[in-house]
Specification:
406 residues; alpha/beta; Aspartate Aminotransferase, domain 1; Aspartate Aminotransferase, domain 2; 2 domains; eight-stranded mixed beta sheet
């Protein structure tokens, strides 16, 4: 009997997810016994953060009540109503539809799949969350990145966005606060993006999963609140704000004009029905989370502010590294002066020091620049050790690989 290799689908060829891909190398290094310092994955539960007890209790009680079967495809009524109230608090008062999903990631996947055909494109922030290019690669969309301006606190470059719009462009993705830079977008910039979307009949994907994790007393403006006419899907979820990424509970809030969006809404609902439902017991945590006590946020932000400040101070003190101060989330995206690639840098850094971060090319970056992303969720002792390791390693690295392009 002869065996023939199983050939995977071509749509998977260009799918990358740098945040998880780097773990393969990290596991190899860890197997040698080296102490590892993980600054790569934005999971608060790996560190000294925990969810509010009342949302854990709500899920547990739902399980005890045997609410363990299928949920409605768009989510249980109590959760959908709570999300609609949350939308109203955010200033979104023209909601057309709401759907609960297996994390915000599934909401994003469904929204893109229902909208964009092969050969069409979506304007994707660069740098931006790795999931978006992974999904667009799977859908065989044309890559169409727009650049964030590092010299302007990583604000979207409006002129660059406008120059990238063509007759195959279907949507603009906006991550606010941004992953990986931690940037919070100014209201005037959001207004300009709304105007572009209206002019060119584009859908805006407003990823606002970190909207409650803001520093220095800053306030978040939800893009969909700025116009009743703009076609928008606002993505949110429990993962980051409520410290339960493992619950895998997210949602999409569709807003705009029904006569413009009705067929697209039905297309998304076809996909929602086909996959049955999101996790059922965890949906009972949505209302208690959104409407309950938020003391955990105050505690979390006190920790994160100290760690953000330490991150910026220590990284900016390293010759050859510069770091824009994050205003939200728990990431920083320092720039590094290298002859070599940032992939090579983070790989060698892991091997030599055990510090795990993610290369900038995994998120996209302006051509000719090199970066890496750090997560400042770990405690100050871990962060201090990691940043000192980076400083001592960088000098040795530059000497070792001077003139060698990797």
């Amino acid at each position: 009997m002869s065996f023939k290799e199983i050939v995977p689908a071509e749509r998977c060829e260009n799918v990358r997810y740098a945040i998880r891909d780097i773990v393969v190398i990290a596991n190899q290094v860890a197997a040698t016994g080296k102490e590892m310092l993980y600054l790569n994955i934005g999971d608060p539960n790996l560190f000294d953060f925990e969810p509010p007890k009342h949302i854990v209790d709500a899920t547990y009680n739902a399980m005890l009540k045997n609410l363990n079967g299928y949920a409605p495809s768009s989510g249980i009524k109590e959760a959908v109503q709570a999300i609609e109230k949350e939308a109203s608090r955010k200033g979104i008062d023209n909601v057309l539809d709401i759907f609960v999903t297996t994390g915000a990631s599934e909401a994003i996947d469904i929204a893109l799949t229902a909208l964009v055909n092969e050969g069409e494109n979506v304007l994707t922030p660069t740098p931006g969350y790795s999931l978006y290019p992974a999904i667009t690669a799977k859908l065989r969309n044309i890559e169409n990145p727009y650049y964030l301006d590092e010299s302007n606190n990583w604000q979207p470059n409006i002129e660059d966005i406008k120059s990238k719009i063509n007759d195959k462009t279907k949507a603009i993705i906006l991550i606010n606060p941004n992953n990986p830079t931690g940037a919070l977008y100014k209201t005037e910039v959001l207004h300009q993006i709304v105007e572009l979307a209206l002019e060119y009949n584009l859908v805006i994907f407003a990823d606002e999963i970190y909207d409650k994790l803001l520093f220095d007393g800053l306030k978040h403006t939800s893009l969909a609140s700025l116009s009743k006419d703009v076609s928008c899907i606002t993505f949110g979820g429990l993962s980051k704000n409520y410290m339960v990424p493992g619950f895998r509970i997210g949602w999409g809030i569709v807003s705009g004009r029904m006569e413009v969006m009705k067929n697209y809404i039905e297309a998304m609902n076809k996909l929602l029905r086909a996959r049955l439902s999101a996790n059922h017991p965890e949906q009972w945590a949505i209302k208690p989370a959104l409407e309950g006590d938020h003391t955990h946020l105050k505690i979390a932000l006190e920790k994160l502010t100290r760690r953000r400040d330490m991150t910026v101070e220590m990284l900016n003190a390293i010759p050859g590294i510069s770091c824009v101060k994050p205003e939200g989330a728990f990431y920083a995206f320092p720039k590094i002066d290298l002859e070599q690639t940032d992939v090579h840098f983070v790989t060698e850094l892991m091997k030599e020091t055990g510090v795990v971060c993610v290369h900038g090319t995994g998120f996209g970056q302006y051509p000719g620049t090199k970066h890496f992303r750090v997560v400042f969720l770990p405690n100050e002792q871990i962060l201090s050790k990691a940043y000192k390791n980076i400083e001592s390693f960088l000098l040795q690295y530059k000497e070792k690989f001077a003139g060698v392009i990797k």
